[in-house]
UniProtKB/TrEMBL annotation:
Classification via CDD domains: ABC_HisP_GlnQ (cd03262)
GO MF annotations, alphabetized: ATP binding
Superkingdom classification of source: Bacteria
Residue stretches making up the ABC transporter domain: 11-256
Keyword hit for Cell membrane: yes
Xref: PROSITE patterns: ABC_TRANSPORTER_1, ABC_TRANSPORTER_2
UniProt source species: Inquilinus ginsengisoli
InterPro entries per the UniProt record, alphabetical: AAA+_ATPase, ABC_ATPase_HisP-typ, ABC_transporter-like_ATP-bd, ABC_transporter-like_CS, Ectoine_EhuA, MetN_ABC_transporter-like, P-loop_NTPase
Family: Belongs to the ABC transporter superfamily.
Name this polypeptide is given: Polar amino acid transport system ATP-binding protein
Amino acid sequence: MPDPTSSAPCISVEGVTKRFGPLTVLNDLSFTVKPGEKLALIGPSGSGKTTILRILMTLEEINGGHIRIEGEQLFHMPRNGGLVAADERHLHKMRAKIGMVFQLFNLFPHKCVLDNVTLAPMLTAGVDRKSAETRAMELLELVGMAGKAKAMPAQLSGGQKQRVAIARALALQPRIMLFDEVTSALDPELVEEVLNVMRRLAAETDMTMLLVTHEMSFAHDFADRVLFFDQGRIVEEGPPDAIFRNPREERTQIFLKKIIAAGHRV
Ligand SMILES: Nc1ncnc2c1ncn2[C@@H]1O[C@H](COP(=O)(O)OP(=O)(O)OP(=O)(O)O)[C@@H](O)[C@H]1O
């Protein structure tokens, strides 16, 4: 259980560098996240927001720096000039702490909604079918999809698929949830139903949550703290009111002006 009175960070990113070939995507990046904190990562396209989420999920390795999740190093084996997770067991243990929801829902197309949610607990955590289904139905209830438990993904709208993907990510009972532009592939009328689920999760659970989004008004309402990324670094951070209403840094001001000019609410 996250302990909000604890001063130990839930996530600690220290001097992380990530390169793709000659391109430095994260440049000596550092930040910490408190247990239970809701963080929004905003910034221009290509500034490294998705990359840091993928690194936290160990979907990418790093070239330097340290990452600790609940005090434990995520990467520590040097290989080919980079750092990778120590071994499969460690990787498995660390991954179980974190759930991620992606822009594209990536549901298993040949499995019904219920099986999509029960698969990981049964296969990777050894949960028996009955317990996995009971838990899955509770999660589907939470995201408003219990009535579609037997439906196939192709029968669902984008918003419904994304709500199932959220239930699936919650099925392993992660302590940290990462959301990567989860509404950007949705038709505008379906966005709100997914945001409502995330509002509920933020209000009703004490999970630590990191959100990458271009929905600035949602970021404002959702986050305890906002990090503004540019060129692989955090240029400015603070409470949503300070960042959105009164940004100090010129680059933040320019970014927000562009967002408003593009017709988005902040
Ligand atoms: N696997 C990869 N190989 C090469 N370059 C990559 C790879 N993944 C990301 N990049 C590059 O890294 C940079 C950062 O990408 P990233 O997706 O983290 O940015 P972002 O801030 O999330 O952008 P957006 O808001 O558009 O999603 C971009 O220039 C991108 O092209």
